[in-house]
Amino acid sequence: GAGVSQSPSNKVTEKGKDVELRCDPISGHTALYWYRQSLGQGLEFLIYFQGNSAPDKSGLPSDRFSAERTGGSVSTLTIQRTQQEDSAVYLCASSFLSWGRNTEAFFGQGTRLTVV
Amino acid sequence: TQLLEQSPQFLSIQEGENLTVYCNSSSVFSSLQWYRQEPGEGPVLLVTVVTGGEVKKLKRLTFQFGDARKDSSLHITAAQPGDTGLYLCAGSRAGTALIFGKGTTLSVSS
């Protein structure tokens, strides 16, 4: 596709259930990021994939959160045993190479997760 | 610890007014970016500044990178309702994740 695609766009889940969020980055982009955004707030960094390097997981808030990137393309963010505080918009972004001096990040429209 | 502090957090002004949004840090960044986000959408890049003291203009928007590459400002001249949105600054260091500030929510009424 022409842009970063995220699915689902909305997800309502019961507390304690596991959820998977999917991100299809722009073809050819080697860097992929996941961020979390609470209502009206800035972006909280979660995880960063860059090529074949080990991912930077320093932003994951707990061990209930994990992410994979298969074949250097599609990524899945998994949240196990969801809690109400996990409710937020989860944004995925991709870019060429790594964050550099002139690298633009392209964002998807996000997945709005509501834990009830 | 918030690496990038944005101020003000909220700004509500009338059409035609000027405004400045600030992005400050105690850390040095190789570049700073400004993004604008509308409700239900992902952020969209407005500009990247890379050189200390650099000034970039994008129509009515003027962006400045501090001499020490620790801070940046966004100035909007004669704001219009279409400028309404969440403005985010983001700092980049080589090989690390792009870090975002908490954003400034701008509302411009006609």
Mean pLDDT value of chain B: 93
Radius of gyration from the alpha-carbon trace of chain B, in angstroms: 13 Å
Counting structural domains of chain A, the number is 1
Distance between the termini of chain A: 33 Å
- In the predicted model, the low-confidence regions of chain B spanning at least 5 consecutive residues are none
**Beta-strand share of residues of chain A:** over 45%
Number of separate strands of chain B: 11
Largest interface: A-B, 29 and 29 residues
CATH superfamily of chain A: Immunoglobulins
Mean pLDDT of chain A: 91
Q: How would you describe the shape of chain B?
A: globular
- Structural class by sheet pairing and helices of chain B: mainly beta
Overview of the structural elements:
The complex is a heterodimer of chains A (116) and B (110). With 116 residues, chain A is mainly beta. Chain A has a single domain, classed as Immunoglobulins (Immunoglobulin-like, Sandwich). Helices cover 0% and strands 46% of the residues of chain A. Chain A is built from no helices and ten strands. In chain A, strands 2, 4, 5, 8, 9 and 10 form a six-stranded mixed β-sheet that branches. Chain A is globular and about 35 Å long. The relative contact order of chain A is 0.33. The mean pLDDT of chain A is 91. With 110 residues, chain B is an all-beta fold. In chain B, the strands form two sheets. In chain B, strands 2, 4, 5, 9, 10 and 11 form a six-stranded mixed β-sheet that branches. Chain B has a five-stranded antiparallel β-sheet with strand order 1-3-8-7-6, with no helix packed on it. The model of chain B has no long low-confidence stretch (mean pLDDT 93). At the A-B interface, β5 and β9 of A face β4, β5, β9 and β10 of B.
